[in-house]
Amino acid sequence: MIVIENASEILTIPHGYNKPKKGNEMRDLGIIKNSNIWIDRGKIIKITKELPDKIEEKIDASGKIVMPAFVDPHTHLVFSGIRDFELSLKMQGKSYLEIQNAGGGIYYTVDKTRNASEEELYEESSKRLEYMVKHGTLGAEAKSGYGIDIENEIKMLKVIKRLSENYSIEISPTFLLHIIPKNREEKEYVEYISDNIEKIKDYAKNVDVFCDKGAFSKESTELFLKKAKEQGFKLKMHADELEYIGCSSLIKKFDFISMDHLLKTPDEIINEMSKKNTVAVLLPGTPFTLFQESFSDARKFIKNNVAVAIGTDLNPNCYTENMQEIISLSIYRMRMTVEEAIVASTYNAAFASGLQDKLGSIEVGKDANLIIMDAKSYTEIGYHFGVNLVTEIIKKGKVIS
Fold this sequence. Notes:
The chain is α/β, with parallel strands linked by helices. It has 2 domains: 2-69 and 361-400, Roll (Urease, subunit C, domain 1); 70-353, TIM Barrel (Alpha-Beta Barrel), CATH 3.20.20.140. It contains 13 helices and 16 strands. The strands form 2 sheets. Strands 1, 2, 3, 4, 5, 14, 15 and 16 form an 8-stranded mixed sheet that branches. The protein starts with a strand and ends with a strand.
């Protein structure tokens, strides 16, 4: 028996009947004070003020909080070629699309990723994964998307699979239709990908599309999603980040596990989202790194009963692996309460990634995937920013380094 003892607060985030939390539900952390967690064979078996008769290992959580490990529901974990040179261009006022058209942006990363070997991609990405775990993330969605042909996309997805097998983190692999290759027509390219999508079924369980100005149209996105749905993939979408061009209106035709970014989403679509369990994954790190003043309107989504999650959008443009930093941005720039931000980074993020059976809450019978934070109360999360508050990381009942 392993016991986490004397926790100042245990944030259980009680289960919501197998669906993500909406509205006021996002403020319910299910706090149990000054108690112990019993763990046996990797599972949580009891939360109580008592101690068992036989204890094999004690983990002291005195003066600290215990909570579910973070889940990052939107990452571009695997790539080669960081783009630190773009920072000076952003400071000159260059837009996302202007930088891309000048030879930076996604196309720069595509070239670097396509030229990298599978081993080189693994080595680069493993360092990012170590940072993620160190800051308390034990579950993540990871996308391909920088290969832009089937062979290189599979190369990326193979790296994601290796990372999942070799690290103490649950990864939900996603094939991303990211950008139209240079010198190819959009319709022809989408048909090529759609006709070959069956080849990636062994490597990805989700598909995603970057549907926006400068990326894929609503019409091309619909064609691809229809084919992916027929093949049994779960559906996700980048939408309404740069402009609203009708992409998110596809929620009327498809069931998405998540729709992400959503800076420009109209009220009509927010209302449609409220009718489903689609999670709105908001990514405050992206407008922050683009020097933008406008962020996703988290308050409007929550007020209208849309389930909200938050993620890093880890990529060469928004280069962070730290979900604690994203919680801070969500509070200070999207006006989320600390309770909402915690639920959005754990429970709802797990649903947005398809990992809710393993992560997101502390429940009897569930895997003990937990973190211990150096804070006497959850109210310090987000408030005490710029540092790593995680002191212990526990995967299936075992403390990991």
